[in-house]
Design brief:
This protein is α/β, with parallel strands linked by helices. The protein has a single domain, classed as P-loop containing nucleotide triphosphate hydrolases (Rossmann fold), CATH 3.40.50.300. 46% of the residues lie in helices and 12% in strands. The chain contains 10 helices and 7 strands. The strands form 2 sheets. The chain has a 5-stranded parallel β-sheet with strand order 2-3-1-4-7. Helix 2 crosses helix 10 and helix 3 packs across helix 4. The structure holds BIS(adenosine)-5'-pentaphosphate.
Length: 248
Amino acid sequence: MTETDTKQENVASEKADFIPGPVLLIGPPGVGKGTQAKLLMAEFGIPQISTGDLLREQRKQRTPLGLAADDLIRQGLLVADEIVNAMVAERLRHADCGRGYVLDGFPRTLAQATWLDQHLASHEGSCPVVVISLRVDRDDLLKRITGRRVCPDGHIYNIYSQPPARAGVCDADGKRLEQRKDDTEEVFESRMRVFDEETARVIPHYRGQGRFAEVDGFQPVEAVTTAIRTSLQGFRMGSERPRVPAGK
Ligand code: AP5
């Protein structure tokens, strides 16, 4: 278990009341999935599971998977479904996922979505997922991507819209901010192509299942969070029994 996992499990144990169940955040690169997932994690006390972060963690540890994934990430291409599915399956086994979780950046192919459907169906007591699809215009996405700066512990900034108090330094922990290797205009084009060809097809898959909402991501961060919260309340469920049955 990584240090980040441990921190998330501590957060999970501190929160109690309203539990949204599994929440999937879907959308193109830079739309705000990570930003919103962290806010939902803090609000609901459920962990954020970002497949991008899990892969970057593998890279940091220089595992064979991490090194192979690094090559694909730098080109803006997807890591193989079986590898990512196995990584998610392993993460979902952790105790902190029992009351719900936010999946950030997964599933992003139809094969991953089908795998997740089957995986959850095979686990007794699993709540149906709520899917939030975030939208922002392409030009604004590029600005968000090239302006993003991150700290090694995952705090997210933007030199245009969410700058740190001191340039290049994380407000939360004083660590130096960096630009992700895949946050260039060239790699963004490749990531967008992959989104259009693969991930966009996941949206109709979930829209058809009913527990789906589209949220305009081109609003201030807090307004996006409010819109997501409102959607989640519409699909509100208890910790044991969903109020809205799957498929309705
Ligand atoms: P991943 O890390 O998941 O990248 P992504 O999906 O492209 O998404 P991003 O992290 O770029 O953006 P985000 O939507 O989280 O936006 P953020 O909140 O940071 O994946 C990286 C790579 O890993 C993939 O390309 C692939 O190779 C591999 N991979 C990952 N998952 C995989 C999978 N399932 N299968 C196969 N391969 C996989 O915000 C962006 C910027 O905008 C920030 O600067 C932020 O401050 C700013 N911002 C956020 N919200 C707002 C707002 N409301 N107003 C103004 N600015 C805002």
